[in-house]
Amino acid sequence: MRRTARPLTGTALAVAAAALAAAPAYGAPTGDVEVTPASVVPGGQVTLRTAACGDGGTATGDASAVGAGSLSLAPGPHEQDATGRFRVPPSAQPGTYEITATCTGNGRRITGDLVVTLTSEGRQVHPRGSVKTGVGGALGPDPVQTAAGVAALAVAAAGGTWLLHRRARGDGI
Fold first, then answer.
1. Cβ-count burial of 159 within 10 angstroms (0-12 exposed, 13-18 middle, 19+ buried)?
2. 47 vs 17, 28, 57, 122, CA distance in Å?
3. Which residue in 28, 42, 78, 101 has a CA-CA distance of 20 to 30 Å to 14?
4. Parallel, antiparallel, or unpaired for β 70-75 and 59-62?
């Protein structure tokens, strides 16, 4: 059984690799809506472009998922592409939204994804403040409380040392 399993496993892996190599690469097919930029902050402007409606074709876009309503896509600088723009509302919540368009001539429905984030890709956000993880982070960096904690630990250490010293001498504890 073991001698048969190895060649079969190798054959299965070779077939799977060939199937993956022959499959189209992952990404938006040429017939879908190209959303530029793919990631935007609330209040930002987004451009939709598609070649799915044919040369000189128009489309009606629907960005109501993100709260922007409908828009029209008309032939742009490249005659084969229909282009439209909309602004993401400032009240938009972070997440991934599906933007759709329907070609006027052939009725084809096409989609694209828009990601709304709280920060732009070029700007890095640095963390501020302490981590709120319970009592340790909730007390904050108060110098009086820190001194009281250190004093309590010192008293406990001195008392423990004194008791161990008495016990070692045999004073009855």
1. exposed
2. 37, 16, 17, 19
3. 28
4. antiparallel
Distance CA 143, CA 151 (A): 12
Give the CA diameter of the chain.
102
Instruction: Kindly report whether the global pTM for this prediction surpasses the value 0.70.
Output: no
Mean pLDDT (the chain) is 76
- Exposure of 110 by Cβ count < 10 A (0-12 exposed, 13-18 middle, 19+ buried)? buried
CB 116 within 8 A of CB 88: yes
- Could you tell me where the DSSP H helices lie in the chain? 2-22, 135-138, 143-169
pLDDT tens per residue, range 4-57: 545 545 554 454 444 444 443 333 344 488 888 888 999 999 999 888 887 778
* Parallel, antiparallel or unpaired: strands 34-36 and 95-103: unpaired
Q: How far is CA 59 from CA 48, 50, 80, in A?
A: 11, 9, 12
